[in-house]
Amino acid sequence: MGAQPAAEPDRAAMSAKRVTPELQQEIEQFLYHESRVLDERRYEQWYELLADDLHYFMPTRYNRMRRESDKEFSAPGEAALFDEDKQSIAQRIRRLNTGMAWAEDPPSRTRHMVSNVVIRSRGDGEYEADCYYLLYRSRLEREVEIFVGMRHDVLRRSANPAGFQIARRTIILDQTVLLARNLSFFF
Amino acid sequence: MAWKKVCRTNDVADQSGIKIKGPNPIAVFRLGDEFFATDDTCTHAKFSLSEGYIEGEEVVCALHEARFCLRTGKVLSPPAIVPLRTYPVRVEDEEVFVDVD
Amino acid sequence: MKTDSTSNGRGRLSSEMLRGLVDEKTGTLDPRIYHDREIYELELERIFTRSWLYLCHESQLKKAGDFFSTYMAEDPVLVVRQKDGSVRAFLNQCRHRGMRICRADCGNARAFTCSYHGWGYDIAGNLASVPHEQDGYRNEIDKSKWGPLPVPRIETYNGLVFGNWDKDAPNFRDYLGDMLWYTDGYFDRTAGGTEVIGGMHRWVLQCNWKFAAEQFCSDMYHADFSHLSALIARLPEGVDPSMGQMPTIGSQFSSRNGHGTGFFTDVNTLDEFNGPVAAAWYQGPHRAEAIRRLGEPRASQISAAHMTVFPTFSFLPGIQTLRVWHPRGPGEIEVWAWALADRDAPAEVKEAVRLGVLRTFSAGGIFEQDDGENWLEIQKVLRGHMARRQKLNVAMGLGHQQTNHPRFPGKINNVYAEEAARGFYRQWAQMISGEI
Question: Is A11-173 in CATH node 3.10.450.50?
């Protein structure tokens, strides 16, 4: 088991890599666009935002005594809620499109809210973008689930109309026992 | 002076302690090549300090987090208030001696 | 029209009434077994304190002091590896004022201390230290009498650790009884044994525990419709969608003790479930050893199976998801699930099993998602008074069971049957009514 998979970078090192307000805005707009695409269930379009070498990862999380707090998260090679490549995401989308994915048919209503966006450049057109997320999901008559946590993305400049592709996404959820019936949607 | 042979050096793994049984049990701790001896019973609420966690040159009682300096026995954190008794240690030919007077 | 009696104490829950909730002879169930709070309280008392309940896998407790915090039904228990290598478990409740002794999910501990008044326990669960023993208790407390309640019976079966509150319970193998032949076929395949992949999945479903336990016991039937989307999605691009069909030939076994399993025997379409790397291992060295140890049909003719050990321990052999359904009231469960792999399998095989399981059978797994949808909606429908008065149907294959199958011992029916469900509910009804 491991420590926080996406620790906050050193502030001094950060300021050396600070991005311009224009780039900050451009990336935030990309994240908002992506949220909208997901919330409108335009999965094929979302798929186009994923890089071919995508790693989409959501570790599991545990209550640990402080002495063992470095083991709060599952480590690579352990149980994860998502540990996906582009092919397995394609499989998930194919499933949603069958019309028989009962967990999403009738579909859930989701809103992906993102805030606290912190960006730094990795060079070569790659950017690390951390954000906090609040994902609201309502389902069927009266089911409501709320997911809160942090995302750590690596975005890559792309010729696609959205301007970027998602190369890495690590999703931290602020729960240990998942308080949800399933994860039949994307973070 | 009452030097008493209590164990062999390799009886004690690095960064840990063992309990030497007796009417007044002694704990022998090892930090690298250095050995320390103290009373084994925490001065707070009777628990074996050889079961405790070693952090730097301190032993932390596994029960209530009382913290003592291995070198001096000084209390470094409550709930303990009474210092831990320490004993001189000497190592000869891979054998550990404690002056239990 | 007679109505449900309103909280009439336990008077209304006579043995006769309870036994009548299940009629395995006609294959009908009274849906109140999933909804009624008083019946649930009786389950805790009469089923969960007398049954063998899954605690953890030995591989989770590697060294002395390693602990895993789990539950036996609603009772929190700490399972701890001892210095002598044995495993002990005790109620995670301080005897002083009832506080939870350990609030971490897992880890390594030298001792456990209640955070309320500081009562301290050694890893065996003995009360070792009481603050203010001298000035407060005047040295009058007998610490040997105030340790947390030990789980009196712990047994390990092929790496799986089970506990039972009933000190007079039969040993675990006798409890498995006629199921042992099948579970040996699932858990005793190689000398190296098994381990769980690190970490686990835990999630909450608003449904009764029996929906989940019974389905894994007896229900291959739902798979080719509930999971059709996943079966189709997993087909390689360009392949005829009719290849997503489930196999059809197989058998289901119903144990005298309420356990059950079902499996396909014709084609191994699910052999590749966790991908080609895992398949190469499980069809290769793993199977060769299983043939030597178990022979046929267990080594290779039983594939793509489901199973439940009554009441709440389930496993999908081949797919390799292992889980316990912790009840949380009549209308809620926590699923605690692990991926099981051969301990001596190469790292890439374990990785394939890990990925295969999390992508198919976990909260986000493309198969598992749809199970919850069914169970939760049944539970919600059962809020209705009329809905609770409709008998439910577990009659598939009724009367077509046989006990002289040429290859499979015990009571056998077609893979698409509800023989094991009838056995599961018979066991439930016998225990809850006090018949056994």
Answer: yes
**Residues C136 and C257 placed together within one structural domain of the fold:** no
User: For every one of its 436 residues, what pLDDT tens digit does chain C have, with 9 covering 90 and above?
Assistant: 444 444 444 568 999 999 999 999 999 999 999 999 999 999 999 999 999 999 999 999 999 999 999 999 999 999 999 999 999 999 999 999 999 999 999 999 999 999 999 999 999 999 999 999 999 999 999 999 999 999 999 999 999 999 999 999 999 999 999 999 999 999 999 999 999 999 999 999 999 999 999 999 999 999 989 998 998 888 877 777 777 777 889 999 999 999 999 999 876 656 678 999 999 999 999 999 999 999 989 998 887 899 999 999 999 999 999 999 999 999 999 999 999 999 999 999 999 999 999 999 999 999 999 999 999 999 999 999 999 999 999 999 999 999 999 999 999 999 999 999 999 999 999 999 999 9
Determine the 3-state secondary structure of C204 from DSSP: strand
CATH classification of the domain holding C141: 2.102.10.10
Neighbouring chains of A at 3+ CB pairs within 8 Å? Answer: C
pLDDT tens-digit readout, C41-69: 999 999 999 999 999 999 999 999 999 99
Mutation target among B29, B46, B50, B59 for the C interface, most CBs of C within 10 A:
B46
- Same domain? C273 vs C153: no
Is B51 within 8 Å of C113 when comparing Cβ atoms?
no
Cα–Cα distance for residue pair A55/C180, rounded to 1 Å: 42
Nearest Cβ partner for C373 among A99, A102, A176: A102
C324, β-bridge pairs:
C313, C336
Report if residue C17 sits inside a domain. no
User: pLDDT tens digit string along C404-431?
Assistant: 999 999 999 999 999 999 999 999 999 9
Domains of chain B, CATH where assigned: 3-99 (2.102.10.10)
Q: Which residue has the tokens 């049990």?
A: B25
Same structural domain, C102 and C230: no
Considering the domain architecture, whether residues C150 and C230 belong to the same structural domain is answered as no
What is the Cα–Cα distance from C71 to C75, expressed in whole angstroms?
5
C interface residues, A as partner, C-beta within 8 Å: 103-109, 197-206, 226, 228-230, 232-234, 334, 338-339, 350-351, 354-355, 358-359, 362-364, 366, 368-370, 372-374, 376-377
Do C269 and C204 fall into the same domain? yes
Cα–Cα nearest to A143, from C367, C325, C328, C377:
C377
Domain total for chain C? 2
How far apart are the C-alpha atoms of C256 and C424, rounded to whole Å? Answer: 9
C377 shares a domain with C259: yes
**Domain hosting residue C89, numbered range:** 53-157
The answer to whether the CB of C419 falls within 8 A of the CB of C218 is: yes
Query: Cα–Cα distances in Å, from C120 out to B76, C93, C123, C124, C182?
Result: 20, 12, 10, 11, 43
